[in-house]
């Protein structure tokens, strides 16, 4: 029995509440520090670093895309590792790597240095953090999975609101190097210890079952628990279901929108005549909206459907892009970013939920390991598309028009992603 399992077993006998909420707390720590490599955080650095080094927006955006490619290559192995060993080690190492990459970014002196450091940071953001966080929650919850993921999204949203402001404030007291250094300290302080010491792979490993009301008192670690009524697809079986391809199509179209707008929205708002402070404030406010919306989407999925919730999120994102096209004042910026925060909150909350609901816990990591590369590559393309179109046309109107169309297509694809009813359906 490993140290985290032994510690979890002892704590689960003493705590007056379900140990799964400790898992949510650990995953939440990882979710908070993960946003140090988010494109919304990077967007604060676009102007000062580009101005100092003379980089084009396309050159700057390329680091996001290359980091996404590296994440796509590592995701299958990370997914299998999550199923076999659990998320604790994955998230602890990811936090150490991200903290080290942020320290390296604070010492950037060339485009090559920036690419190496940020590609490593972005790779951990898009692969180990994504799979580790979603796997931890998916393994510990079934009936309350949407609710648990919504709490993770609240933490993601709070961090997404705080990280750009923290970086901007640190830069105001020095330069952009202070911003990266401050992010590195936060990541290393918050992200490593909880997941290393407290995160256990599955409730069955310490004699529990998923969800608070169904969990029995721990009797013996590793003892077989009562079976849970949920689907159980292998990776090969899942790949033969139409739903998987509809959901993957959804990710192909929605994640360029998410990443492309996230990275370039502050420069776009500034170019439309808003002050940098108003632009940063508007972008930060979207995370506050997202925190509330994530909880609402989690409750919606529990009562209705994660599929319909994802559809609503994509439609809200398309509306945000339309408003950004015509933004000319502070209040319009806040409306656009709030809609964007609402839509993305639904997408980030419910996408891990729908994978687990449709295909079960047993091979969740392996299935996410082969589907995540598609999502990551799509996400990597968004900043590059926006950067190239901005350099070509001298504004962001072309990319925002394209992103509006992408989001509408994504909404249609996920609407048709009906759940597979049986394993036999996937092979018949």
Write a structural description:
The protein is an all-alpha fold and 428 residues long. 79% of the residues lie in helices and 0% in strands. The chain is built from 17 helices and no strands. The radius of gyration is 21 Å and the shape is globular.
CATH superfamily: MFS general substrate transporter like domains
Strand portion = under 5%
Q: At the third CATH level, what is the topology name?
A: Growth Hormone, Chain: A
Uncertain segments are none
* C-alpha termini separation: 41 Å
**Whole-angstrom Rg:** 21 Å
Structure in a nutshell:
The protein has 428 residues and is mainly α.
Give me some keywords for this one.
428 residues, mainly alpha, Growth Hormone, Chain: A, 0% strand
